[in-house]
Amino acid sequence: MRLLVVEDEVRLARAVQRGLQAEGFTVDLAHDGRAGLELARKGRYDVVLLDIMLPELSGYRVVQALRAERNWVPILLLSAKDGEYDQADGLDAGADDYLTKPFSFVVLLARLRALLRRGARERPAVLIAGDLRLDPAARTVTRGETAIALTTREFALLEYLLRRRGEVVGKAELLEHVWDALTPPEPNVVEVYLGYLRRKIDAPFDRRALTTVRGAGYRLEADGG
Amino acid sequence: MRLLVVEDEVRLARAVQRGLQAEGFTVDLAHDGRAGLELARKGRYDVVLLDIMLPELSGYRVVQALRAERNWVPILLLSAKDGEYDQADGLDAGADDYLTKPFSFVVLLARLRALLRRGARERPAVLIAGDLRLDPAARTVTRGETAIALTTREFALLEYLLRRRGEVVGKAELLEHVWDALTPPEPNVVEVYLGYLRRKIDAPFDRRALTTVRGAGYRLEADGG
DNA sequence: CGCGCGGCTCAGCGTCCCCTCAGGTTCGGG
DNA sequence: CCCGAACCTGAGGGGACGCTGAGCCGCGCG
Fold it and tell me: Which of B36, B84, B119, B129 is most deeply packed, by most CB within 10 A?
C-alpha cells in the first residue's frame, strides 16, 4: 500500500510518515501543493493525505485538478481550521473524507482503512509495449493473443522494465527494486531471470523485446521488439 | 433519494428531517436502535444517518447487524462523544463515515452528498462472470441453469471475489474482508474455502473460474473460466 | 441425547520457485 | 589474435507455498 502525504508542516509530516510506515505502508512526502499534485499524478497511490492549507497550491485546488483529470485516487483532507465551508467545499470538490487537526493517530488509521476498503475501484493502467501487455491488477501478461504465465519474480521484473520501457535500467537498480534490498542476492540472478523472461516473452514469438546493453544494463524496447 | 435518520433526540431528529426534506430528500425517522434496524432492513435507503448512543440497541450494534447480513447501505454515524475509539470502532464495524455532534447542517449535507456519490457507483444487483451468477439480495448462486448451494462463508468469499473479478485478490485481503478481523483465523482457511468453492462451482462443470496466482493471491476469471 | 452440518485447525505431501553455482559464450580492447 | 570482463544458461538443492484429508468443536434439531 502506497500513500502520499502532502503536508507543509515538516515535523507533522515526518511523524505521520513514521507512524504509517510502522503500520506497513509505503509513504511518500510532499511539502507543497504543486509537488503534491505532481506526485499524485504519477504515483499511483492507494490514498492521498492532503492538507488544505498549503503553499503554492491549496489542497482544495489539488483535489479539483486531480478530479478534473478523472483521477479518482481516494483523498483524505487534513484541515487545520474548522471553518465548515472549507471542509464542505473540499468534499464537494471531490475529496472522500476529511480530518480536523489535531487528530489522533488511531482515528487517522481507521479513516485510512475505511478509504482503502472502499478503494478507488478504478484499475491501474495496463502497461503496453508493442503487442506486449501487462495488467498489474489482473496480474496477467499477454503477447498478441496468447497469455503468458509468469512467476512472481518474473512478473515483478517485467513490470519494472515495462514501467521504464525504452530506458536502460542498470542491474543494480533492478536488484534494488525488484529484489528485496535487505539481503541482496547475487547480481547474477538478474541475468538468470532475464533469461527466463526471454524464453517466455521473446523466444516463442521470435522477437527481441529485451535488449542487453553491455556494461550498462537492460532495456525493454518500447515497441515490444 | 430516501434517507433514514435514527436519532433518539427527537427535536434534533425533526430538525434534520425538515432540513433534508427542504433539500429534496425523503426522510424516515426512527428513535431507537431496534426500530432503526428494522427499517433499515426493509427500507432500501440510499443512506442511513445513525446515532451511536441509542436506546435499545447502540448504533454500533446496528452497523454490525446490517453488515453481518451483507447489507451495504451507506451509513453515516453521528457521535455525541468524541472518544476516538468509538469512531474508529464504528468505521471498522463497517460504517462509511461519521460526524461528531454538534455538526453544522452544511457539513452534514456535504458528507451525505459524498456518500451518495460513492454509493451510486458500486453495488450492482447481480454479480456475473460468464455463466456464473450470484444474487446478493436473494442469496443465490447459479452456474448456467443449475442452482448451487453455498454455506454462509463460501457465499461471502465468492461474493467478494466476484466484486473484484478479473483482479488478483491477496489472501490477507480476503481474510480481512470475508472473515471478521477481530480474531483473525489461520490464513489456511482461505485455501480450504477456495477448495470448497472449486468443488462446488468449478469441478462439477469442468471449469476453472478460480485461479491461484502463486505468491499473490487468487483471481476469479471475468469470463467465468 | 445423538446426529448432521458448518467453521475451523492441523499436519503431511507434492509442486513450484528462487537462487546459487559452474562452465560455456560473447564481446570489446589491446 | 588473445585475453579478460561481462553475460548466458543448464542443473540442482532447499525452501516456500498451496492443496487436501482428517478431525475437533459448537450449534441447532429431531
Answer: B36
